[in-house]
Amino acid sequence: MTLIRSERVAAVLLLAAAALGLLAANSPLGAGLMALQDAHLAIPGTPLDLSVGHWISDGLLAVFFFVVAVELKNEFTVGQLNSVSKAVRPAIAALGGVIVPALVYLAFTAGSGYEGGWPIPTATDIAFALGVLAVFGKGIPSRLRIFILALAILDDIVAILIIAVFFTADPNLLMLLLAAVGVAVFGLLSRLLGTRFRMLVAVALVVVGLVTWSLVYLSGVHATIAGVALGLVMVRKPALHVRHALEPVTNGVILPLFAFSAALVAIPAVAPDELAAPFWGILVALPVGKLIGISLGGWLSRFVGPRERRPHLTFQGLITAGALGGVGFTVSLLMNELAFADSPEVADEGTLAVLLGSAVSIVVAAILVSRLAASYRRLRMLRLAAEQRVRGA
C-alpha cells in the first residue's frame, strides 16, 4: 500500500496504463475492447444506464475528484493556501496557465467549428507533475514543490468550474436540488463519525454519497462534480482519513483504469495535413502554451505583495514549473471526451493530441527538473564546503 501511495509509482502506473490502452486499441484486440467499452450496464429498477466507459469516467473518476476536493479543502484551511497572501502568487501563475493555452488552442481552431474545445489544454495533472518532480527533482527546495503543488491545485479548481459551467446543458433543477440536499446530509452525517455510532454512520455516508452521485448524474451536470461537492462538505479530519484510505485505490486502480479507457483509441490512418484543427491546437497548447502562460504568470506574481514576503523563485524555476504544468493527462482527457462527445473522430484525435502533448511536456519537464535539481545540489555542496573551510580556519 505504501508503494502505491508514492507519487513516482502513481505517475508510472498512469503512463503505463495509457500506453497499454493505445497499444491495445491498435492491436487485434482493439475492436473487442472498444465494443466492451461501449457496452451498457444498467442498474435494474433505476434510470441509471451507462456504458462501461462512462461508468469509469463518470462513476469511478468521481472518487478521484472526491480525493482532490479533500486535499483542496485541507490546503485552504490549514495548508499552503490558507491565506490570500499565500494563494495569490500561484493563483496568478495558474491563471496564466489557463489563459495562454486557451488562446493558443483558439488560434489553431479559429473558424473550424471546434472552438468549444478550448478548455482541454488548460488542465494540469497533479499526480503526473508531482511524480516527475519526485523522480527527477532530488535536491529541489521545498518552496518550489509547494509552489507547483499550489499551482496544480488551483488549476484543478479552474478545471472543476469549467466542467460544471461549460459542459452542462439544460440541467434538471429538481434533481440538482435533491442532490444539494444529499450533499448537505452527507456533510452533517460526517460530523457524527466521532461518535459510538461511527460504523452505522459510515454505511449511511456511503449510501447518501451514492444517491447524491446518481442525482447529480440524472441532473445533467457531470457526475464527477458530486465527488467534488461531497469532498468539500465532509468534516476535515475524517475526510483526511478517508482520503488516506482511498489513495491506493485511486492511484493503483481508478486513475490507471481511466487512462487505459481514455487512451483506447485507434490511431487514424490519415496524413498529418488531414488531422483536424483541435489536434494541432491541443498538441501545441499543452507543452508550449502552458510553459509560456505559467512562466509569465509566475513572473508577474513576483511583483505582487510586500517585497519581503515574495517567494524567491528563479526564472529557471518558473520555466520548470511551466513545463510540469503542460502534463495535462487525466483532466484533459476527460475534458476532451466532454468537448467532442458528438464528434467521435475528433475526440479520438484529441485524445492522441493530449497524450502526445503531455509526453512532450514530460520529457521537457524531466530535463529541466534534472538540471534545476543538479544546480541546487551543486550550490548546497559549495555552501557545505565553504562552511567547512570557515570551521577549519
Average pLDDT reading? 87
> What overall geometry do the principal axes of the alpha carbons give?
globular
Secondary-structure element series: HHHEEHHHHHHHHHHHH
Give the neighbour order of strands across the main sheet: 1-2
Low-confidence stretches: none
CATH architecture: Up-down Bundle
Major sheet attributes: 2 strands, antiparallel
Alpha-beta classification? mainly alpha
The number of strands is: 2
How many H/I helical runs? 15
What would CATH call the homologous superfamily?
Answer: Na+/H+ antiporter like domain
| Radius of gyration (Å) | 22 Å
CATH structural class:
Mainly Alpha
Looking at CATH, which topology would you report? Na+/H+ antiporter like fold
Strand content: under 5%
Overall structural domain count: 1
The end-to-end distance, rounded to whole angstroms, is 50 Å
Indicate the percent of residues in helices: over 70%
Catalytic activity: Na(+)(in) + 2 H(+)(out) = Na(+)(out) + 2 H(+)(in)
InterPro entries: Na/H_antiporter_dom_sf, NhaA
Membrane topology: Multi-pass membrane protein
Function: Na(+)/H(+) antiporter that extrudes sodium in exchange for external protons.
